[in-house]
């Protein structure tokens, strides 16, 4: 594009240069795999019989090998509201495949845990590493070499990154991601947030809190706040891995079904044997990864993707770090305010213009790469339109102006001139600071710290009144190697209460927060992590910490070099956590993606 922004161009070129060796090796791998893709006519008849025995009405078509066979990798379970609709998808997808002379089989299933259910519970310590397990499960699903393409059924937090990492290691195959869409809007987000804070202060009962939460999370479909799950869907649009505009169409609608149908027809058309070969390993290149990062910044998406984007990039041989994200953030304007950064949810966002509007604006401002290979029939420009139906036919049309300028604004008049995700660093390490949800007068906090090794102790100290002052709360030993890097989202209500009481409050942690991290200034994902002697392990209660989003400071005047580190805690067992000891012991840092699998694979 001739109007590409100078900083976007410079960061892209730097990423391309950093990735030259690893990307070249990756492309050689997928070319070799494509060349070695077995001709099923030459595969042992015994092998084929095992693969075809359960195919029922598709068995004859498979035996004739007249069309592509599509592998469905599903993260279905009916405990996740977002994934509950997938229960009936396989039969529909098989019908859509037959319409174009193809076949489809469920290649495998992946686990799909919900951070909303495990939040603050022991199971959250398995959450980040579930991404590696999902990637491994996807690899197992596609290992049978029976497939000419793949459909990825997944939406939520670690699930889409895990599916993508696994699919990229079979990057010679085309793959399309198929979302199921968000649930209808429930009670207002303002009402939900108010009840949470009342409960944190002891002024609402548990029954009142539960009634409020169920009023928000109430039916099949993705949770409607703009957290990690919906940020995943945004990124799949920005990378061109959805059928254009598929992200936020609700379950059970005719348009949702039309988009699902198009995904099947399209993956059948872009395989190796056709005239429009679009393997996912070619679609996900340096420019696509940059587009994902730009979309994250432009929409104020989940901070979890400061970890997931580098991990997904590595699986495609692309090297991206927090310096790249921070430089992009300096020029990518904030175009969207979606709860918890605004009052409306993703349904309101979609109705106001949604991803089509965001992509159109970014392309017009030279802040996204149009010339990427998408799974659609064009470049990224089609993703800057919105889907609709003309009778039963799927069509796309121009988005037009924002339908709600309190939620969506043009690049010429954004909510903020920057993308709201900044790198902070100093003698306490490197960390991520999400400014898009934080008032600018809170960008700088300098105060004595209170050091905790467990998030439960923060809540206890709050309830005892011990934090009623200006304070930087440090929660350490929460990194990948310590305990699997759980989200600490449950800290937000008490810290928000302290902030509302007029105190200067900040959080510093080597743990994670999500897209729901809220309005409290926080330096999160601190790396190196405390385990093994990282800087946070040398802090003592009372040390003054300066956290400043404006200058990028994360530091203390305390002489850390002269101090011994606090002893490493022993990882808790029970609740299956002992089974993940290998993942913890081999995990790399948060900036690299916090993955043991990728580290051990040398990626």
From TrEMBL:
<dbReference type="GO" id="GO:0005829">
    <property type="term" value="C:cytosol"/>
</dbReference>
<dbReference type="InterPro" id="IPR004786">
    <property type="entry name" value="6-phosphgluc_deHydtase"/>
</dbReference>
<keyword id="KW-0119">Carbohydrate metabolism</keyword>
<dbReference type="GO" id="GO:0019521">
    <property type="term" value="P:D-gluconate metabolic process"/>
</dbReference>
<dbReference type="GO" id="GO:0009255">
    <property type="term" value="P:Entner-Doudoroff pathway through 6-phosphogluconate"/>
</dbReference>
<dbReference type="Pfam" id="PF24877">
    <property type="entry name" value="ILV_EDD_C"/>
</dbReference>
<dbReference type="InterPro" id="IPR042096">
    <property type="entry name" value="Dihydro-acid_dehy_C"/>
</dbReference>
<protein>
    <recommendedName>
        <fullName>Phosphogluconate dehydratase</fullName>
        <ecNumber>4.2.1.12</ecNumber>
    </recommendedName>
</protein>
<keyword id="KW-0456">Lyase</keyword>
<dbReference type="GO" id="GO:0004456">
    <property type="term" value="F:phosphogluconate dehydratase activity"/>
</dbReference>
<dbReference type="InterPro" id="IPR000581">
    <property type="entry name" value="ILV_EDD_N"/>
</dbReference>
<feature type="domain" description="Dihydroxy-acid/6-phosphogluconate dehydratase C-terminal">
    <location>
        <begin position="407"/>
        <end position="593"/>
    </location>
</feature>
<dbReference type="InterPro" id="IPR056740">
    <property type="entry name" value="ILV_EDD_C"/>
</dbReference>
<feature type="binding site">
    <location>
        <position position="156"/>
    </location>
    <ligand>
        <name>[4Fe-4S] cluster</name>
    </ligand>
</feature>
<comment type="pathway">
    <text>Carbohydrate metabolism; Entner-Doudoroff pathway.</text>
</comment>
<dbReference type="GO" id="GO:0046872">
    <property type="term" value="F:metal ion binding"/>
</dbReference>
<feature type="binding site">
    <location>
        <position position="223"/>
    </location>
    <ligand>
        <name>[4Fe-4S] cluster</name>
    </ligand>
</feature>
<keyword id="KW-0411">Iron-sulfur</keyword>
<keyword id="KW-0479">Metal-binding</keyword>
<keyword id="KW-0311">Gluconate utilization</keyword>
<comment type="similarity">
    <text>Belongs to the IlvD/Edd family.</text>
</comment>
<feature type="domain" description="Dihydroxy-acid/6-phosphogluconate dehydratase N-terminal">
    <location>
        <begin position="68"/>
        <end position="380"/>
    </location>
</feature>
<comment type="function">
    <text>Catalyzes the dehydration of 6-phospho-D-gluconate to 2-dehydro-3-deoxy-6-phospho-D-gluconate.</text>
</comment>
<dbReference type="GO" id="GO:0051539">
    <property type="term" value="F:4 iron, 4 sulfur cluster binding"/>
</dbReference>
<keyword id="KW-0004">4Fe-4S</keyword>
<dbReference type="InterPro" id="IPR020558">
    <property type="entry name" value="DiOHA_6PGluconate_deHydtase_CS"/>
</dbReference>
<dbReference type="InterPro" id="IPR037237">
    <property type="entry name" value="IlvD/EDD_N"/>
</dbReference>
<keyword id="KW-0408">Iron</keyword>
<dbReference type="Pfam" id="PF00920">
    <property type="entry name" value="ILVD_EDD_N"/>
</dbReference>
